[in-house]
Specification:
By secondary structure, this protein is mostly helical. Helix content is 76%, strand content 0%. The protein contains 20 helices and no strands. Helix 9 crosses helix 13, helix 10 runs antiparallel to helix 12 and helix 16 packs antiparallel against helix 17. The radius of gyration is 23 Å and the shape is globular. The two termini are 28 Å apart. Its main location: membrane. InterPro entries: Dipep/tripep_permease (IPR005279), MFS_trans_sf (IPR036259), POT_fam (IPR000109), PTR2_symporter_CS (IPR018456). It is a multi-pass membrane protein.
């Protein structure tokens, strides 16, 4: 008896949503409230309380450096979390123990609100805890699906991103008020309580999760394949050596760049030149490693090129909590309205745009014959970030001319930047997971997060570069302020990156690495 394709489709069971998903979503909503609750008031607190001993003309630059150094740490430590989960402990235990560290960091912020060493220790613990779990929670979501119900995965990733912004919205709205009315101990203590709740929710679902065990040491891992290729010598090894020389020079400039930017730049140089060198001669690793491992390493290197081109987006996006807050301070607004409260517009728009895109925009474009792929979304999102900063730069020109500018005008750059965020970040979570081989889910997702670290590194390097005599002379001759010039620079940076991303994406071979 022959079963027709139609009958197979008729009798195939409908894909079911994994019942453990609500625990992960609830955990993420509370954790994001805790993170954005402290992050969105950090610049204001630094400017008005912790850094009052810094001369006023230097305080703004110092606050921005502390903020972006903290963000660099948050998105650097995913490398540690991904490695520990993939190699030793698995995702759930790693998430749980880093969450405890995270809670301790919040406690330090609330207790040491008048002590720079104690407060910075809290920032370090939060960057370690938040960064350690960051690549794992989104990868943990993907682990709950298989090929039978993977059609629901993108919807859950959208819901995952929606709940992130739900928590961020209320944190952005209420934390500035708590800081003003009740002081930093309450304002930093409330996010700490939410992180404790997040940890308890995660723990409550421990018996329901689908656990992917740690893979242990892998003799054919990505790094070992790359190292074998580079050891073979040749032009690729010479290119990699240039990266090492550049990294050593970067570390020698710690006095000029400070420790964190110098170390991050050294890492970028080693990864960039080392990856380029290995890509030229990966075939030299065949024999020492199976073809599957070599082909997997080539796929990862292709993926890292795309991730590198996303970094300019994060340069622009994360400055909404520093540069845009400082710009809002110069704008006219109601007396009760705090500049940092403007950030609540970003998550509010995300919660609207995600369902609008899925229910209206993408189906409409599909009917028009335009296929909305993940890479097309991401390239468009990078370009929209550039447009947002053109708007911000124009507002800065009005302010520099002495005009009274209402804070309502700042909605324009926020709308453009948020639409770009939805296209890049929400899409990138599922894209990174789907392209990662099963043995590298946590690691690849951590490399996706590393793109945020590098984006914030560009901000710190730009702030250092703009102080050079040549840059100051060029800015003076332009007739624009330093802030306006930097805004237009970052806009151009993103637009160039978007064009390059589109060219590379056209040749990228898509993968499907969900479990069977």
């Amino acid at each position: 008896m022959t079963t027709t394709t139609a009958n197979l489709h008729a009798t195939a069971p409908a894909a079911k949503m994994p019942p453990q998903i609500p625990y992960i979503i609830g955990n993420e909503g509370c954790e994001r409230f805790s993170f954005y609750g402290m992050r969105n008031i950090l610049t204001v607190f630094l400017m008005t309380s912790l850094l009052l001993a810094v001369p006023e003309n230097l305080r703004k630059a110092e606050a921005k450096e502390v903020f972006h150094t903290f963000v660099i740490g948050v998105y650097f430590f995913p490398l540690l979390g991904g490695w520990l989960a993939d190699r030793f402990f698995g995702k759930y235990p790693t998430i749980f123990w880093f969450s405890i560290v995270y809670c301790a960091g919040h406690a330090c912020l609330a207790v040491f609100d008048d002590s720079i060493p104690g407060f910075y220790a809290g920032l370090f613990l939060i960057s370690l805890g938040s960064g350690g779990i960051k690549p794992l929670v989104s990868a943990f979501v993907g682990d709950q699906f298989d090929k039978g119900n993977r059609s629901l995965a993108q919807k859950v990733y959208d819901a995952f991103y929606w709940i992130i912004n739900f928590g961020s919205f209320f944190a952005s709205l209420f934390m500035p008020i708590l800081l003003k009315q009740y002081g930093p101990r309450v304002a930093f203590g409330v996010p700490g309580l939410l992180m404790l709740v997040a940890t308890l929710i995660l723990w409550s679902g421990r018996a329901k999760y689908m656990h992917q065990p740690a893979r242990g040491a892998n003799p054919h891992s990505f790094l070992k394949v790359v190292w074998t290729a580079l050891k073979a010598g040749g032009a690729g090894a010479a290119i990699a050596a240039l990266g090492v020389v550049g990294a050593l020079y970067s570390l020698s400039q710690i006095g000029a760049l400070s420790l964190v930017p110098a170390v991050c730049l050294a890492l970028v140089l080693v990864m960039g030149f080392g990856g380029a060198g290995a890509a030229l001669q990966l075939d030299r690793a065949r024999g020492a490693h199976p073809d599957e491992a070599v082909d997997g390493a080539r796929a990862v290197l292709r993926l890292l090129v795309l991730f590198a081109l996303v970094t300019p987006f994060w340069s622009l996006f994360d400055q909404k909590a520093s540069t845009w807050v400082l710009q809002a301070d110069q704008m006219s607004k109601p007396e009760w309205f705090q500049s940092s409260m403007m950030q609540a517009l970003n998550p509010a728009l995300v919660m609207i745009l995600i369902p609008f895109n899925n229910l209206v925009l993408y189906p409409l474009l599909g009917r028009m014959g335009l296929k909305v792929t993940a890479l097309r979304r991401m390239g468009s999102g990078i370009a929209l970030a550039g447009v947002a900063w053109i708007f911000a730069g124009m507002l800065q020109l009005w302010l520099d001319a002495g005009q009274a500018v209402s804070i309502v005008w700042q909605m324009l750059p926020y709308v453009a930047l948020t639409l770009g965020e939805v296209l890049v970040s929400a899409t990138g979570l599922e894209f990174a997971y789907s392209q990662a081989p099963l043995s590298m889910k946590g690691t690849i997702t951590s490399l996706w997060n590393l793109s945020v670290t590098i984006g914030n590194l560009w901000v710190l390097l730009s702030n250092v570069s703009v102080k050079s005599p040549a840059a100051l002379e060029a800015i003076k001759s332009s007739g624009y302020s330093e802030t306006a010039c930097l805004m237009f620079f970052f806009a151009g940076f993103a637009l160039v990156a978007a064009a390059l991303f589109g060219l590379v994406a056209r040749r990228y071979p898509m993968q499907d690495h969900y479990r069977g």
